[in-house]
Design goal:
Blueprint lengths: L1 H19 L6 E5 L5 E5 L3 E5 L14 E5 L6 H9 L12 E2 L10 E10 L2 E5 L6 E8 L2 E13 L2 E12 L4 E13 L8 E8 L6 E5 L4 E7 L4 H11 L6 E7 L5 E5 L2 E8 L4 E10 L7
Length: 291
């Protein structure tokens, strides 16, 4: 009898523990197997930023976007499929795909710095990060920081620290940016800086909106605007369409919400050493909540 009671208590205890298991909705990690990528995701989309091993390819401090078909976490499976199975994540096999091209741009919500020169604005984009740090990782929240030693702006070298927070049930990432001057490369005074988030406008510009009062920009494009991704998907499944991408950037109290050097930006006047907060996020027309 005692054995039966002990077994029942053990079973109840195990069942209770099973009920307490929480399936993560947010995830991220450093990815050394893909040239120091730093990738993260929540239910709605996945993102990555580029690290020092990719420096010879002249990447930016911009944000790359991976489209997801459902809330299922996909970052690890995408990398595994690409680097172990040899199946490119630029093709949609049913879970989503990487069809967004960044190059040396701000990409999907990356940091943009503007300076004014003779009545015109000039855009400054940085290179890959130098250091990373995970600050918080729970099933509902992921916070990390990337440090950049050399952001070149108007003859000056700035250091960039960006802390990004991704949360469950929230399509927008929070970015907190601090810029400091590392060393001047010239005797010229650093001009006024306008800092915030931006979206690179690809060649096929179908639709964009600018909300000046809210400091918000919105951009929509064909998911296969990148010709390489379009050809790979057509060769695989004969499809010429993978739906539409929707991208939003918000910089509260932005001074400039406009197109600058091919980027749709929301930036505000910035003082070195201050913390500037902006938000960015994306979604896909083919996303479905299957829960």
């Amino acid at each position: 009898m005692k054995k039966i009671i002990f077994f029942l208590l053990a079973l109840l205890s195990f069942t209770a523990c099973q009920k307490e298991v929480v399936q993560p909705k947010v995830y991220g990690r450093y990815v050394p197997e893909r040239k120091d990528d730093f990738a993260w995701e929540n239910e709605y989309a996945a993102f990555r930023m580029y690290g020092p091993a990719l420096r010879p390819e002249n990447p930016s401090n911009g944000v790359d976007l991976w489209l997801k078909a459902s809330p299922e976490l996909v970052v690890d499976s995408f990398y595994y499929r690409e680097h172990v199975l040899g199946l490119p994540y630029h093709i949609n096999y049913g879970k989503g795909l990487d069809c967004y091209k960044v190059g040396h741009t701000c990409g999907c919500g990356g940091l943009v710095v503007l300076t004014e020169e003779e009545g015109n604005y000039k855009t400054w984009i940085g290179g890959p990060y130098d250091r990373w740090e995970i600050l918080e990782q729970t099933p509902e929240r992921f916070v990390f920081r990337l440090e950049y030693d050399s952001l070149f702006v108007a003859g000056h070298v700035l250091q960039e620290s960006i802390t990004i927070t991704a949360e469950a049930d929230n399509a927008m990432n929070k970015a907190e940016v601090v810029l400091t001057e590392q060393s001047p490369m010239s005797n010229d005074q650093l001009p006024i800086l306008y800092v915030g988030g931006g979206v690179y406008l690809h060649d096929t510009i179908d639709h964009f909106e600018v909300y000046h009062k809210l400091g918000t920009v919105f951009y929509e494009e064909d998911a296969l605007s990148d010709k390489t991704a379009a050809k790979m998907n057509f060769d695989y499944n004969g499809s010429t369409s993978q739906g539409r991408i929707y991208i939003t950037v918000q910089t509260p109290d932005a001074d400039i919400t406009d197109i600058q050097d091919g980027n749709l930006v929301a930036v505000k006047e910035y003082t070195l050493g201050d913390t500037l907060t902006y938000y960015f996020g994306a979604s896909w027309s083919e996303w479905h909540d299957l829960r």
